[in-house]
Structure to design on (149 residues):
């Protein structure tokens, strides 16, 4: 999968690099005037091509890094969604948590529990179940003890 992902990234990266470097292929600057041409020299074609090559390389590296970060972010979001589902399923199948109103939110493996439970023991049990769930690195409890709303 890594090989096919890299292959799919090369073509858009090259296209982006070419689009970014097109202005570098021009022989003269856009603010050229006859007076300026007498006092300054324009870069040679080889200098323009070297700069264009540098621009293409930089654009390719930037596109590759963006794709990598996008992939990692998507992977983390999928893992967090699966963790949330596992915690909610565990709560649903636990008799001790019947009648509770607990919301579960996961971000980067950190599970936040919020809502209302009937007792402190229910809150403790919810935290314990969440912590024992696969994918959970830490549990933050914002549970309130009181009547259901």
């Amino acid at each position: 999968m890594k090989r096919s992902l890299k292959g799919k990234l090369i073509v858009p990266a090259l296209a982006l690099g070419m689009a970014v470097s097109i202005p570098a292929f021009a022989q003269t600057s856009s603010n050229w005037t006859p007076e300026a041409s007498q006092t300054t020299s324009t870069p040679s074609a080889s200098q323009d091509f070297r700069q264009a090559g540098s621009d293409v390389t930089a654009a390719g590296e930037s596109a590759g890094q963006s794709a990598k970060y996008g992939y990692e972010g998507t992977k983390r979001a999928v893992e967090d969604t699966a963790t949330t589902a596992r915690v909610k399923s565990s709560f649903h199948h636990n008799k001790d948590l019947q009648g509770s109103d607990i919301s579960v939110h996961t971000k980067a493996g950190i599970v936040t529990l919020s809502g209302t439970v009937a007792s402190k023991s229910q809150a403790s049990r919810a935290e314990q179940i969440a912590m024992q769930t696969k994918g959970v690195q830490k549990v933050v409890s914002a549970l309130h003890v009181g009547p259901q709303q």
